[in-house]
Each structure stands twice: as C-alpha cells, then as structure tokens.
Design goal:
By secondary structure, this protein is of the alpha/beta class. The N terminus is likely disordered. The protein binds nicotinamide-adenine-dinucleotide (NAD). The site of nicotinamide-adenine-dinucleotide has 23 residues, from α2.
Amino acid sequence: MTIDSSRRGFLKTSATLLTANTIALEAEPIPQQTPPPSDRMRFGIVGIGMQGTNLLSDAISLPGAECVAAADLYDGRHTHAREITNNPSLPVTRRYRDLLDRKDIDCIVAAVPDHWHKRVVVDACNAGKDIYCEKPMSHTAAEGFDMAAAAEKNKRIVQIGSQRVSGVVFGKARELYSSGAIGDVEMVELTLGRNDPTGAWEYPPPLDLSPHNLDWDTWLNDAPKIPFSPERFARWRCWKEYGTGVGGDLMVHLLTGFLFTLGWNEPPRSASALGGIVRWKDGRNMPDLHTVLFDYHGVPVYVRLSLGAETPEASRFMGPKGIIEVSGSQLRFSPQRGIETRPSYYSSSFPRKMRDEYVAQWHASHDAELAHEAVLNDTVYRGNGEDDGVLHMRNFFQSVKSRKPLVEDAVFGNHAAIACHMANESYFRRGPVTWDAASRSIKSS
Ligand SMILES: NC(=O)c1ccc[n+]([C@@H]2O[C@H](COP(=O)([O-])OP(=O)(O)OC[C@H]3O[C@@H](n4cnc5c(N)ncnc54)[C@H](O)[C@@H]3O)[C@@H](O)[C@H]2O)c1
C-alpha cells in the first residue's frame, strides 16, 4: 500500500471525504384559525419606517393580531400604516404616548431610531404596556440598565428585535452546541460585508419630507438641535448622535445569534477595535469598516464588518470536535476527530528506511482502532424560508399572553447591546476597553 503522507496529499484525501448529508429544518407551523376574542392581541405600533413596515406586516399576518393604532412623527407614515393594515380609518397620531394611554391596547411594537429606544421602552413599561423594541436595545450602555430596570419594576414583557433567535437555524445551532457536537467552544468568528449605497445606509429620503409633515424637533430627541435635514432623517445610522453604526445595526444580530447558540448571557470582558471611514466619505461619523476582538470569559470572538466589500453573513463556532457554521438560512456542521488518521506528513523528511519503519510502526499501532471509526461527513441543515421575523413576533405575543419569560428579554438585549457600545467606544478611543460590572460602565484599559 502506498501512502501519500505529504500535507498536500492529506488535504486532497480529506476533501474527498467531505460529502454532506442535507437535512431540511421545519418550523413548528403557526395555527391559522382565528382565536376566540379573549385570545386576540390588540397592539399599537410606534415608528412605521423601514423596519416598522416589516414588523407591522409580520404582526398582522398572525391570526388574532390586530393593529389598533399607529404613531409616527412623519405623517407620510400614517398613510403607510393605513395602507399596510388595509384600514383607512386606523387611528394615527404623532404622539406615541396617546397609544400608551389607551386601555384597549395590549402591547406596543416599536421600530424607532436607536436614540429613541430608551424613552419609548421606559414610557411603555411605566404605562403598564409590554413592548417589542427593535435592536440594538440601547443607544448607550447606561440606557440599557434604565430600560431593564423599568421592565423589572413594572413586571413588563420586553422583547428586543434580533429575530434570528426565534428562527429554526439558530435553534438548531443551539441544540447542536448544547449536545456537545463540537465540544467546548474555543473561538468564534462573526462576519458580514456589504458593498452598495443602500447597504451603506445612503437611503433616499421620502420625496415630500418637510418640517410641515414631520415633527423634526421631537425626532431629534436629546441629540443636538440642528436645522431640518432629510438626510439625517433617512440615514440616521451614519451618525452617532442617533445611531450605533455597524455595531448596533449589524454586529448586534451576529452577537445575539452567538450568545443564543452558546447559551451565554453576559457582556464581554474587553473589546479591541480597528476600523475607519474607508469607503463612504459622505459626512458620516460612524465607521464603515469595523473589526473587533472581544474577550468572552477567555474565549476570543472575532467580528469583521465592512460596508465596502460584500461577503456573506457567517457565524463560525470552533471547538475540538468540529465546527458549526451558520450562514443565512443554512447551517453546516463539520465534525472533526482531532486524532491522527494517517502517518504524520513530517515523516516525509525522514530517510527512506526510517520512514518505512515509522509508517509500519504507525499502522501497527493505529489501524485496528481506526477500522472501527466511522467516516465523518458534514451535515448541512437548511431553513425552510420561514420568516424569523414572524416567529419572533409570535413568540412576543405568546409571552404577552402567558407571562412566560422570553429568550431575548431586556437583560439579554442589554448584554448584546453593551458589546456593540464597547466596540464603538474602542473605535472612538483608539484603544482597548473593558467592561466594569461594578460601575456598569466602559473603561479604557
Ligand atoms: N431587526 C432587524 O432586522 C432590523 C432591520 C432594520 C432596522 N431595525 C431597527 O429598527 C429601528 C428603526 O429602523 P428603521 O430603519 O425602520 O428607521 P426609519 O428611519 O426607517 O423609521 C423610523 C421611524 O420612526 C419614526 N419616529 C422616530 N421617533 C419617533 C417617535 N418619538 N415617535 C413616533 N415615531 C418616531 C420616524 O419618523 C420614522 O418614520 C432601528 O432601531 C433599527 O436598528 C431592525
């Protein structure tokens, strides 16, 4: 028997073994019959912009869910909410507090820009309303604690909107990891890249937007007062005064999926970021390239986000027994033995007689054991296209009814958001930062 013990030969042989089984993942079907009136869910929506459009459409697709009022500072979105709900007389207002005062509203769904999350969540909780609030939970680390405290004090259900945690693919990733499929995770990589103006948030402002149909002063909230700016209204993610950059826009989804998969619920110990405004020099102050190395109780978590080079969204969990990789609606589990399956390619440096002797010894001591080892194949799990957003909304509505806790509650949402704030602070301070649990603040290290 001839043995190709070179590294090239080893890789070639390994590659031929990598045939994958494919398994379809099915979400538990959502019952389609209309529930009795006592089980209906009457909700109000706050913010019917890009994401509010998705949330409202998802919510009303659920049997028994009814949107009974909509609030937005821009009147064009009142028309839009009536169009989505197909209800020309849907009550609409610029003041979201009007919704909080209504006794017939069970809960609130909010998709306002990041600099409004805290006020809307705290006001909703204090008014006795449960709330689904978009990610990232907070605009600053301190805000997240005020929001979690308001939820706890008022015993409210708060769900944050990183919808992947309700999807079948991350559900499978979590199940595989907890069953020990890859052993204890040693390292995690999270990556995503975009490469077009819309991906870089250069959204077109609504064509008729003006101070007459938008309450601009209120939209600014606590941000510095500046004259009406359609660009800031539509592209608020580009500025730290309103948004949280690629950290809060994209990284938070990856971090939420990572924490959920591993069953962790904590902020990182430290973050060290590098980045810059490399491609989109349009006046923004948030980086369009952001790489971060987090320390999660000793496990390195590397994140790479770019708005200048398109790459798939991927979460890679590496352990001694294999790799779990989630990318889009697909999960690949690649088991690894972590043992020698052929004579070491280092022996190619031995003179022939010594090499032959080593190879013979190797087979004598390994072949019997290896004969019992099964061939390792990858398994690919494919999501069935079920919308994570609908499942996440369904989970929220169920929790509002049952009062049972959610995975992505205010504590979990706060931990994921803190990591994003640390990534941003490290970028702006140009050095590593650490999380100080005692003072609940980010320190320069
Ligand atoms: N989960 C996801 O996949 C996902 C996707 C996109 C956006 N988001 C999140 O959703 C949130 C909204 O993002 P967007 O892209 O829809 O923004 P957007 O600018 O398109 O829409 C926000 C809307 O909120 C309104 N608004 C602002 N302050 C308000 C207030 N005090 N009262 C009532 N209305 C108010 C604005 O007028 C606007 O119409 C952000 O936090 C964002 O991070 C989540």
